[in-house]
Amino acid sequence: MHFGLSDDQQLFRDTTAKFLEDTCPLDEVRRLGADEPDGFSRAWWRRGAELGWVSMLVSEEHGGGCISGQGLADLVLVAEEMGRRVSPGPLIPTNVVAAALSRLGSPDRGKELAGLVAGETVATWCADPSALGIGAPGGPLRAVAHGDGYVLDGVSGPVEAAGQADLVLVTAVSDGGPVQVALPADAPGVTTVPAQSLDLVRRFAVLRFDGTEVAGESVLGEPASTAADIERQLQDAVVLQCAEMAGALDRVLEFTIEYAQDRFSFGRPLASYQALKHRFADMKLWVEASHASTTAAARAVDTGSDHAAELISVAKSYIGAHAPTILGECVQLHGGIGVTWDHDLHLYSRRVIQDQTQFGTPRDHRERVAVAAGL
User: Fold this and answer.
1) What contacts 371, CB < 8 A, 6 or more positions away?
2) Domains in the chain and their CATH numbers?
3) What is the pLDDT of residues 215-239, one digit of tens each?
4) In the prediction, which pLDDT does 138 show?
5) pLDDT below 50 — which residues of the chain?
6) Rounded distance, CA 236 to CA 238, Å?
7) Per-residue confidence (pLDDT) for residue 135, from 0 to 100
């Protein structure tokens, strides 16, 4: 629950919620998962972009702009509403890349940014775990200096929207440290191999780079600041993941309480039993703390706080650790229907567990918190 939203932020949130409810209810999510190869409609994504879904982290000079002056906090409102409806669309990867291009790209990146902000194009972030400094070691993705550019070799892990993306931001490792390059998804030497996805409407693919040559103008940032640039991108991605998970868990708890109020046992609503009230109270506490930790992390990132890296990991480790418990409790409280394909619970479980494992597991982020605390 948000107590400090401005009137403009509340309008933005309500507009997004109504658009999602009208255009992509859960029945449509199921249809997209079964019938749409990309998992989402490009025309639908453009309509979402018109609402500002890809402009919040982009500077005004590049065609972007936010509502409150804190773009990530504004974008969190979209991610939460998408989580509440298990909505499709490459919200996280496209925004991470758009923000990176806006901060680091040269002036000739304007056309690419305009396409992303307008929803005409989609982007994704392909990052080697060792370059991120989080998660299990990767292939890795290697970048070898070649003239004023690089040659990429290696195989990525599963990358969200890699098969749908028009532009790929690659974070690789080189002898001189991490390197970031932006290149077309269909560049010579890049092969896309579809991968399995737990989420019904999220698509993943593995990217293979076989001697992919990247010119100097495609390199983002300066070597001295690349590690800090990557950390900022990780912060953007994790905050949006946390917001999406918090929104999904909020909705799951909401309809579980409604079910317990309507379902009778021995002449009484299930929700009237004290033991169940205690379980609902615990879950409500965890969900509200999830929203609070996400909001704190978003504000820290927006303001450039020295504690931003720590707070995003606090949020991810907290939400990631409590999410399976909340989901499991809600499945149990629904009884047998909670484990059926027809019920919506599995849609939310798929989304939350998918988010939980990307860009660092709860354990990975607990390690980051321990390091930040000097342990």
Assistant:
1) none
2) 7-118 (1.10.540.10), 123-221 (2.40.110.10), 226-372 (1.20.140.10)
3) 999 999 999 999 999 999 999 999 9
4) 54
5) none
6) 6
7) 66
User: What would the two tokens of residue 324 be?
Assistant: 């399976």
Provide the β-strand partners of residue 149: 146
| Predicted pLDDT at 137 | 59
Q: What is the pLDDT of residue 156?
A: 94
Given phi > 0 = left and psi -120 to 50 = alpha, else beta, which region is 263?
beta
Q: Is residue 113 within 8 Å of residue 94, measured between CB atoms?
A: no
- Residue 219 per-residue DSSP state: B
Helix residue ranges per DSSP H, the chain = 7-23, 26-35, 42-50, 71-85, 91-104, 110-118, 129-132, 226-262, 274-302, 308-334, 345-357, 362-372
100 close to 58: Cβ distance less than 8 angstroms: no
| CA–CA gap between residue 57 and residue 61 (Å, rounded) | 12
- Residue 148: CB atoms within 10 A of its CB come to 10
Identify the CA nearest to 152 among candidates 113, 191, 112: 191
Please check whether residue 168 is in contact with residue 190, taking contact to mean a CB–CB distance below 8 angstroms. Answer: yes
Assigned token pair, 213: 């040559």
In angstroms and rounded to an integer, the radius of gyration of the C-alpha atoms of the chain is: 21
**194, 205 in Cβ contact below 8 A?**
yes
As a whole number of angstroms, the distance between CA 80 and CA 278 comes to 26
